[in-house]
Amino acid sequence: MTARIGPASRVLIVVGIVLIGLVLLSKLSMAVALGAFAVMLVAGLLAGRPVPFVASPATDVVASALAVPGISPIDPVIAALPDAVILLDRDSRVVAFNPPARAIAPALARGTALALALRVPEIVAAVREVEATGEARRIEYSERVPIDRWFAVHVAPVAPRFKLLAFQDLTPLRRVEEMRADFVANASHELRTPLAALSGFIDTLLGPAREDVAARERFLGIMKGQAERMARLIGDLLSLSRVELNEHLPPDTPLDLVPIVRQVADGLQTLARDREVEIHIALPDEPFIVAGDRDELTRAYENLIENALKYGASGKKIEISFNRAPGVAGPEAVVRVRDFGPGIPAEHLPRLTERFYRIDVGHSRAEGGTGLGLALVKHILIRHRGRLLIESTQGQGATFTTRLPLTGSAT
Ligand SMILES: Nc1ncnc2c1ncn2[C@@H]1O[C@H](COP(=O)(O)OP(=O)(O)OP(=O)(O)O)[C@@H](O)[C@H]1O
Ligand SMILES: [Mg+2]
């Protein structure tokens, strides 16, 4: 009987000893002790009976499930996985796969040989290696058509001679790497140009123009301009990385947008006079309160109004307006900066907020631009949980609209 009730027997022996002890100590009557022991014995026997369903190790489940294709309980498990997964049988035929896998290989079908469903020689070779060695393998491959995509595939043996292919989409990671490389290339290129000019002038001043006072004055003026340009570029890059770093922490100081925009417009009056542009600003009567960072918002409107003055000067005027409009999460402050200059061709609109993107590099450089202004505006607005909209009809100017969530009252 001990063998039948298995591990419960030890419990019964201990309980028996305790009951005998209690009877001997006169704490319990013999009748009660025998009754309690009988109850324990019955419970032990019931617990020791063989159970109709016994959970087996995961590999057994996989193996038995695969023996009955079509009703495999592995299907919902694979379907629930977010990344592409394909299960292969011992002949490397597809047993199960999920929708992300079908998106990668539209020819996937149960029972198809992997080599036919997914024509990637690297994967087929990896599967063979896993079959031969019984050890997991990881490979990477890329696709060129219809678009560039990169994947890592982990091939693992799951049950004797079955293989699980788990895909990891590396495309976003590669894109970020590419963007970072582009960014470094652009930044160093932007710095190299003024640096080359500076060292050229230094050589001239040390050599042929050593005694030429007039040339020295002129060259030093140009050198100062180039040095300032480099300083501006580094300053903009630092601001951009600071804003990006804090993007997940929205500012929480309630601020009125109206005086901020008005001060920026006042500060740019000299530039406006130089360019013979009039700034029309329709000031609202009531405040427009947003949770904001004063310096960052000043920076953003400075760039938008300065751009309108620099690139839209031919229109002779710019208009700034304030409005309230319903947004996704409540009312929003809508500030529009409109110029009447040449406008922006449609193909450039989606790329304007990219770092260093300029429609006319020469014009922007001549204006002392670094091409980082709108990237900064975009990130400042993202940090403020707002957004930037750019509209333009060629020949009729451009409108840059900021939308920021409105909050309660200012402090
Ligand atoms: N109002 C506008 N009208 C026409 N083109 C514009 C206007 N605003 C911006 N652009 C174009 O967008 C480009 C990018 O602007 P952005 O503010 O990012 O850089 P930038 O003005 O060249 O340099 P920075 O702002 O760093 O001084 C400009 O070079 C210009 O070609
Ligand atoms: Mg600018």
Give a short summary of the structure:
This protein has helices at 2-5, 8-24, 30-48, 58-66, 74-80, 99-104, 114-117, 121-133, 171-206, 213-245, 257-267, 269-274, 294-311, 361-366, 373-383, and strands at residues 85-88, 94-97, 137-143, 149-157, 163-169, 253-256, 278-282, 289-292, 317-327, 330-339, 387-392, 398-405. It has 411 residues and is of the alpha+beta class. β1 and β2 form a beta hairpin.
How does this structure look, described?
With 411 residues, the protein is of the alpha+beta class. The protein folds into 4 domains: 2-48; 59-169, 2-Layer Sandwich (Beta-Lactamase), CATH 3.30.450.20; 173-232, Orthogonal Bundle (Helix Hairpins); 249-405, Heat Shock Protein 90 (2-Layer Sandwich). Helices cover 49% and strands 19% of the residues. It has helices spanning 2-5, 8-24, 30-48, 58-66, 74-80, 99-104, 114-117, 121-133, 171-206, 213-245, 257-267, 269-274, 294-311, 361-366, 373-383, and strands at 85-88, 94-97, 137-143, 149-157, 163-169, 253-256, 278-282, 289-292, 317-327, 330-339, 387-392, 398-405. A hairpin with a 5-residue loop joins β11 and β12. Bound molecules: adenosine-5'-triphosphate (ATP) and magnesium ion (MG). The site of magnesium ion (MG) has 5 residues, from α13.
